[in-house]
Amino acid sequence: MIVSIPQCLLVSPLDVLTSEMGCLIKRWRPTFTGHQILSLFLLIELKKGRNSAWHPFIQSLPACYTLPHYFSHGELDFLTSHIRERADKEIARAHQAFKDVHKFCQHHWPSGVDWASWEKFLWAWCTISSRAVYLKTEASAEGWLDLSHTDENNQALCPYLDLINHTSTAQMRAGLNTKTACYEIVTEDSFQAHDQVFISYGPHDNTTLFLFYGFTLPTNVYNSVFFSIEDLTELLEVFHVDSWARRKEVLCQYNLLRRLACSTEGISWNLQAALSVLAMDLTQLQECWRILNKEEIHPALEANVLIMARHLIGTALRMTKQFLADRERRAQMDGPTTHTQLALSLVRDDIGILTSALHAVS
After folding, report:
1. Which of 52, 106, 111, 179 would be a feasible disulfide site paired with 45, CB 3.0-4.6 Å?
2. The overall pTM is greater than 0.85
3. Could you state, in order of their start, the residue ranges of all structural domains in the chain?
4. For 112-160, what is each residue's pLDDT tens digit?
5. For the SET domain, which residue ranges apply (predicted)?
């Protein structure tokens, strides 16, 4: 066992809802998510200063984070389009959460809510995002939570765990032990005395680690590059693909437009299947599912899929290299920052993945 934290030291949405402040939250509409409730808890504890029982923990936390929420508009331009799109969504989500919480604070503390400014809320929001652990929401709390965002509800603040770093290869188990009433982490890896102990925050690629934790790994077994439906449609003219409406209908029918990705080992099953749908003639399209499940073998079709894959990946690789060269020039002119260096590391990740994937399908 690496660590065992008594449950009484954890703070879940239910703990906040059953506190003195919980009465105010329960009467408030619209309802908050668990993430908002824990952020509000941190804001109020921060406001108490040394009078807060959580003061030592709060003092141990960073003053700011390297999540995309802290990037300037210019620094966000160093993210590739698919990462920028996800970053923009997370930033917008935080802004909406702040509006809801700030309205609540203004209502209950009309004399002034400087302690609940956007800057302080952002710090609290990113603290929860990067440091909360998964903890199933108790059924008794669900009636007071915004259940449209279940991923934001099943979490709790757990002191000390943020001292243990993440690696994508860690073998471990974590969760609440109902017998000991402790949140426990048990490793299945071997460590020598004085070694740094690592745990896993989950099977996250570097994009997810960046968006929610503010860091990346030099080597991450979960890294992938994702493609969009727009990337597929660009293949239509190149390979003279007709009947796009019918093919798109098939792609949607079999849910093949998600996880269109490649990794260092090649292309995902969904991407291979989607390219197969594009490469099929209309007769083969009638037997689409049988062909995708290898119940029928079509060597010429499989060869065409590889040709399409090479074109798709090769085009993405050229564009990503051009993007990197442009942003490196800009960073050299303006001076690199921690944020731009982090963003460029993600671009280099993509280039490495695309290069290996292109080799795998060649």
Report:
1. 52
2. yes
3. 3-213, 225-361
4. 788 999 999 999 999 999 999 988 866 666 566 765 566 777 889 988 8
5. 12-202
